[in-house]
Specification:
Distance between the termini: 65 Å
Low-confidence stretches: none
Oligomer: single chain
Order of helices and strands: HHHHHHH
Strand content: under 5%
CATH superfamily of the domain at 13-74: lambda repressor-like DNA-binding domains
CATH architecture of the domain at 13-74: Orthogonal Bundle
Structural class: mainly alpha
Helix content: 40-55%
Mean pLDDT: 88
Number of strands: 0
Radius of gyration: 17 Å
Number of helices: 7
CATH topology of the domain at 13-74: 434 Repressor (Amino-terminal Domain)
Shape: globular
């Protein structure tokens, strides 16, 4: 009996590539691969492994987790653009500042 193929793994790589106005060829060149591999990654036919996430996220000015979990078209783009311009080493501090604006459930 033949084994069923695993369903494609959902990700938002294509949305992020299009959001950054890149073609598959341009993303492939920037990530030192070819457009066929990018197509397989976008479709979920090839797993978007941690290695690929770490390689592609900086090219797309986002974080690895956002490639998996967030369509850029559903996010406030001003925040994404500011976040992309914050140096990696300063992001923990920036995140703490943003978190300070969250309601903590207590009256002050």
């Amino acid at each position: 009996m033949a084994r069923e193929a695993d369903p494609p793994e959902k990700n938002h790589l294509r949305a992020w590539r299009e959001f950054r106005h890149l073609t598959q060829d341009e993303l492939a060149e920037a990530s030192e691969t070819n457009a066929s591999v990018i197509s397989l990654l976008e479709s979920g036919a090839r797993k978007l492994s941690p290695k690929w996430l770490r390689k592609l996220a900086p090219i797309l000015n986002t974080s690895p987790g956002y490639l998996l979990d967030h369509d850029p078209n559903d996010l406030p783009t001003a925040i994404l653009d500011v976040w992309a311009d914050i140096p990696e080493e300063s992001r923990p501090q920036a995140l703490r500042v943003l978190e300070s604006f969250k309601k903590n459930g207590t009256e002050g």
